[in-house]
C-alpha cells in the first residue's frame, strides 16, 4: 500500500516547474481587495458569492493544466 510504483525509486519526486502554478488558486482568494465589495452583481448575486465560484473554476482549471503539462513532460522525458 505504501510502496512506490515499480518504475519509480523511493526518493523520486516531481520537480516540474508547472507545480508553481498551483500557488495561484491558493493565493488568489486570500487577496481581500478582490472581493471586498458588493458590486457588480452577476445574475442578482453579490460579487462575493459569484467570485467564490469563479475561484473554484480557477482552481480546477489550474490543477487540470498542471496535471496535463506534468504528464506530458514526463512522457516526453520517457518516464512513463
From TrEMBL:
The organism's place on the tree of life at top rank: Bacteria
Keyword terms: Membrane, Transmembrane, Transmembrane helix
Matches recorded under InterPro entries: DUF3311
Listed transmembrane segments: 18-37, 49-67
This protein's name: DUF3311 domain-containing protein
Organism of provenance: Catellatospora coxensis
